[in-house]
Q: What sequence folds into this?
């Protein structure tokens, strides 16, 4: 890595406490994401992946360890970061352009420049003609693209994506993967991406982090050395398959590799 990391977690631990029980979800979790890197996180359900993203975004505070974003300790929700969730979560009474502009409205006045950039993003994701239509008039994949535009409109340094394509059918998901690869390469954002799909992680990533659970920590950091831009054809190469196999085995054998 040539530049300093945009995200640095050092020995992060998270214990949820209630009156009845304590649940240590993360323990000794250490990771970095470099500027402009695409890094995926894979691991079992309940392993602490969403918890990890919430900690990085400043929504919750870890009980152990340190989190730095752009070299600064995270102690509140950061504005140069945006999050995309599994569901698009769009406001049904606003048209698509107004949904994309929502984060700018929260920050104050929406200028013509912002509106023009929102339109540019909608155009980039093939949605220019739907700007004045409402979310219910779009397919699931199109709605998720609106959510991605909304996450990009504030020019965030970093995008955190929590299974953004989990609810989509396989074909739409494949085309969204291509779309996201293009957006990432055109905008130069740093992306931390959670997925349950190993092929999706291999296809998109510079590195794939495997999270072992109970408690969660990074048990493997795999560099995906495949040429870019990646196409559908790459998915059927022996090299691609080898990465899938390796990661799948690491997830299965998580306890023995810690
Ligand atoms: N606010 C909370 N209070 C108490 N426990 C929580 C809270 N949020 C999450 N947990 C617990 O932390 C563990 C990890 O949850 P988390 O949502 O981070 O997992 P995940 O890896 O994102 O799972 P999935 O792949 O199913 O989305 C689970 O056991 C969950 O019950
Ligand atoms: Mg989750």
A:
């Amino acid at each position: 890595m040539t530049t300093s990391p945009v995200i640095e977690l050092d020995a992060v631990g998270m214990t949820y406490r209630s009156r009845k029980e304590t649940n240590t979800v993360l323990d000794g979790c250490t990771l970095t994401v470099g500027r402009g890197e695409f890094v995926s996180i894979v691991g079992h359900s309940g392993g602490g992946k969403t918890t990890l993203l919430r900690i990085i975004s400043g929504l919750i505070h870890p009980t152990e360890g340190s989190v730095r974003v752009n070299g600064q300790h995270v102690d509140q929700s950061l504005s140069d970061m945006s999050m995309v969730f599994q569901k698009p979560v769009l406001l049904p009474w606003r048209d698509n352009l107004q949904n994309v502009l929502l984060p700018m409205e929260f920050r104050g006045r929406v200028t013509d420049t912002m509106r023009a950039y929102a339109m540019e993003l909608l155009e980039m994701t093939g949605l220019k003609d739907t700007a004045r239509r409402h979310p219910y008039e779009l397919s699931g994949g199109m709605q998720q693209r609106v959510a991605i535009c909304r996450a990009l409109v504030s020019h965030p340094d970093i995008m955190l994506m929590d299974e953004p394509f989990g609810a989509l059918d396989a074909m739409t998901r494949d085309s969204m993967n291509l779309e996201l690869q293009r957006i990432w390469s055109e905008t130069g954002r740093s992306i931390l991406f959670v997925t349950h799909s190993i092929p999706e992680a291999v296809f998109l990533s510079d590195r794939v982090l495997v999270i072992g659970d109970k408690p969660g920590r990074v048990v493997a950091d795999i560099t995906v050395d495949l040429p870019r831009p990646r196409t559908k054809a790459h998915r059927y190469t022996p090299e691609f398959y080898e990465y899938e196999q390796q990661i799948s085995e690491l997830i299965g054998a998580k306890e023995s590799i810690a």
About this structure: The helical segments are 49-56, 96-107, 112-124, 140-152, 170-187, 198-204, 238-252, 254-257. Residues 170-187 form the longest helix (18 residues). DSSP finds eight helices and ten strands in the chain. Confidence is low (pLDDT under 50) at residues 254-258.
